[in-house]
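Entry, Tuesday afternoon. Goal for today is a structural model of the target with pyridoxal-5'-phosphate bound, before we commit to ordering more compound. Inputs were pasted exactly as handed over by J.K., no edits. I checked the ligand SMILES twice against the vendor sheet because last time a stereocentre got dropped in transcription.
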Amino acid sequence: MNTEDAVRFRPYTRSNISEAPQWGKLTQDQRESVTVISRVLPFRVNSYVLGELIDWDNIPDDPIYRLTFPHRDMLRPQEYEALRDLVLVDKDEKKIERMVHDIRMRMNPHPAGQMTHNVPYLDGRPLSGLQHKYRETVLFFPKAGQSCHAYCTFCFRWPQFVGMEELKFDAKDASELVAYLKRHKDVTDILITGGDPMVMNTRALSSYIEPLLVPELSHIQNIRIGTKSVAYWPQRFVNEKDSDDVLRLFEKVVASGKNLALMGHYNHPAELRTPLAQQAVRRIISTGATLRIQAPLIRHINEDPNGWAELWTTGVRLGAIPYYMFVERDTGPSHYFELPLAKAYEVFQQAYKQVSGLARTVRGPSMSAHPGKVVIDGIVTLAGEKVFALQFLQARNPDWVRRPFYAKFDPKATWFDQLVPAFGEDKFFFQEDSAPAREEQVVEHRIPVASLKRTREVHADAPADVS
Ligand SMILES: *Cc1c(COP(=O)(O)O)cnc(C)c1O
């Protein structure tokens, strides 16, 4: 650690960022952008991100700065001008509130759907804080884990961090989760996610995890935790008050015969360069837990294939496992972050070709779309037509997985819903017997599997692409 400040967790948001020792390194214009845009989009950094990850000689282009600090171009020019006048000159809170709301609404904040789609039922009652989209894996959102050590500017969960979304998660305990899992023996994986569950102290985290270790849940083989803490606050596993306790908890899960898998969200190799971040990886793995590496591909932040290759190879050297490269989804300031699918494929291929087989456990670029996780396998010419070769890595209907299918090549397409079938066909194979079905019905009747064949039109308002 270079600075004393980085040792102690100190979060910075719009209200106190001017107290950060680095605030003086921003130009007047950059400070204005932060002040204005953080009204619309979530903004939170911490002492470690500021002190250890951002290269202040390289702002605003530094990727970690881009990853955490609002940039003027995240709003449309007229929006920015108008909001700036309200915030800095007019200062009428009512008017500001109204404009902020309007801007958010045009930013496709549909992750409302994230919380309402794929909600499972128990005795006819929807279980809040749970999602069940793929047969084997249930997502669990403990209320105390719905924040992060710092926020990513591209985060698809942004509406929840600005209070747009009413989260009605069962905060008390894991009892509904356990009851649901006891009845669903084909579930093997539980993914605890957020936000970031690792913002919880070990006692709170244990209260969600230990109930999963009972003999009646022997079909649960993998307990996953989706987390950005390995990058934004590796102290969580190294030198915090209860760092050792959290490692003991991981050991306890492993001793029970289950796999404890940390799904580590790393966006950039800089996040894995610090000695502290590397120590965190080693300590996590020393418990017998596994650590996987995944992240979306984001313009301005991680477009460089060499960066991905460095991230994966460093990870593998430390004992982690490269897992997914995602395509960033269409929400928030997506015009600022998105890349064409063709470019995403190129970045993946250029990175993948550099690494040894041990790092080629990674799959991508993958879109978490409504019917499933669709990976772009290549861009090829077949029967005289240039096409995207695609397949499902994960699907609502398990029968769809790993069946090659083709979409017309489109150099501008940035998401699955913009693609159309190749060879003049009018639908993709999985759309064959589509019948109108309400989301809830699809999920409620997910077993028997036959009912999964009924799916809605393909669209992109899919829920979490966490994994
Ligand atoms: C990605 C994902 C999972 C896990 O899929 P794996 O391929 O097993 O990692 C589970 N649920 C949802 C909603 C997902 O997006």
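The chain has 17 helices and 15 strands.
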